[in-house]
Amino acid sequence: MATTTRKKKTATELKADLDTAKKRVAALEAKAYEGELTEAVAKSSIVTEFNKIKDRYKDVGAVNILQAIGKAVKIPRVAVTQTEPKPRAKKGGTTKKK
Fold this sequence. Notes:
- The protein is mainly alpha-helical.
- The chain has helices spanning about 10-45, 45-55, 60-70.
- The protein is about 55% helix and about 0% strand.
């Protein structure tokens, strides 16, 4: 009879693994439907309506408009942010260590 050195996971460890797996599935679903959603939004009147609002209220930023849209359609706790662009690496070459 063989003895095993493998330890059985506890309920807490299994729950942690389950939470991690659920997060991975949610991320995978978001990636899977991203193209379809982008295409559907592009074909709808959402883009033209957004541009009309943006033209009408020139002093209001796009992020503020998107937050207002989130509130209007009753998406709870929606947070829209805009990040700074990442600086690109300078062309020219790499520096060699001597």
